């Protein structure tokens, strides 16, 4: 059974149907890149999987459990699926380590001692063990985004959804964040990643999903999708037309 099973998912905002029947299964340990033009529904899809948006049709299952619209289910789902955004949103008055400790303590009621041990391990995992006591404004944008990744990992998610997590960074800081994501992929983390980094998608991802106007327009292994795009829409997106 797939870790994430998305079946005929529809989502509308008023008259604007932005997801028009999405079907996508993601296996445990799989790394999926989502590409497509602005407005094609990429962020909305991730937000639906994470329960930040309710869906108007179809179904989303995570680890065999339905995403039901009642609060308890949504809360349970958000604990299973981590999400990282373009903006890191660390609390500026807390150290990096404290930022990572916060959710496990508040949401999971983990003890401070346990949360600190977990946070130190996750900070090590993103290569920032030495920055545990630094405040966000003492860190570069790339380091802050790595702390945000550590914060998501501290909740021990089954999968991580990343929405353009390098888009707000200066170009020279993009690679250190992609390297951390690549390392997580190598460690077996299930990842769905909206990204403009085509080289990363080509080298690290198992499959690439091209979204166009609220639909999965093409899907396949990166070698196929990038080298042999079948539709004019993807050819145009890739700059081939
Ligand atoms: P992408 O991430 O691919 O750029 P989005 O999922 O953000 O696309 O947006 C898809 C469409 O849904 C766009 O037309 C956008 O304006 C619309 N949309 C997204 N979020 C909302 C919202 N909260 N309210 C109304 N319209 C929205
Ligand atoms: Mg988006």
From TrEMBL:
PROSITE patterns: ABC_TRANSPORTER_1 (PS00211), ABC_TRANSPORTER_2 (PS50893). One of its GO terms (molecular function) is ATP hydrolysis activity. Gene3D superfamilies: P-loop containing nucleotide triphosphate hydrolases (3.40.50.300). It comes from the Bacteria. Residues 4-238 form the ABC transporter domain. InterPro entries: AAA+_ATPase, ABC_ATPase_HisP-typ, ABC_transporter-like_ATP-bd, ABC_transporter-like_CS, MetN_ABC_transporter-like, P-loop_NTPase. Pfam families: ABC_tran. The keyword ATP-binding applies. One of its GO terms (cellular component) is plasma membrane. Its main location: membrane. It is found in: Cell membrane. It is a peripheral membrane protein. Keywords: Amino-acid transport, ATP-binding, Cell membrane, Membrane, Nucleotide-binding, Transport. Belongs to the ABC transporter superfamily. This is Amino acid ABC transporter ATP-binding protein. It comes from Azorhizobium oxalatiphilum.
């Amino acid at each position: 059974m797939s870790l994430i099973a998305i079946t005929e998912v529809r989502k509308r905002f008023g008259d604007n149907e932005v997801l028009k029947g999405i079907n996508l299964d993601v296996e445990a340990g799989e790394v999926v890149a989502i590409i497509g033009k602005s407005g094609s529904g990429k962020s909305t899809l991730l937000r639906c999987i994470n329960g930040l948006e309710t869906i108007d049709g179809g179904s989303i299952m995570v680890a065999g459990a339905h995403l039901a619209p009642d609060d308890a289910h949504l809360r349970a789902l958000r604990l299973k699926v981590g999400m990282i955004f373009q903006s890191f949103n660390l609390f500026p008055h807390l150290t990096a380590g404290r930022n990572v400790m916060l959710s496990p303590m508040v949401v999971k009621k983990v003890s401070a001692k346990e949360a600190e041990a977990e946070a130190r391990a996750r900070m090590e995992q993103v290569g920032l063990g030495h920055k545990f006591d630094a405040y966000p404004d003492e860190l570069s944008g790339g380091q802050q985004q790595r702390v945000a990744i550590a914060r998501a990992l501290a909740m021990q998610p089954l999968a991580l959804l990343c929405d353009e997590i390098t888009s707000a960074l200066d170009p020279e800081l993009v690679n250190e964040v992609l390297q951390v994501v690549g390392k997580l992929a190598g460690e077996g983390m299930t990842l769905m990643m909206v990204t403009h980094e085509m080289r990363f998608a080509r080298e690290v991802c198992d499959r690439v999903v091209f979204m166009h106007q609220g639909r999965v327009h093409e899907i396949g292994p990166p070698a196929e999708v990038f080298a042999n795009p079948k539709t004019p829409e993807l050819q145009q997106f890739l700059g081939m037309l």
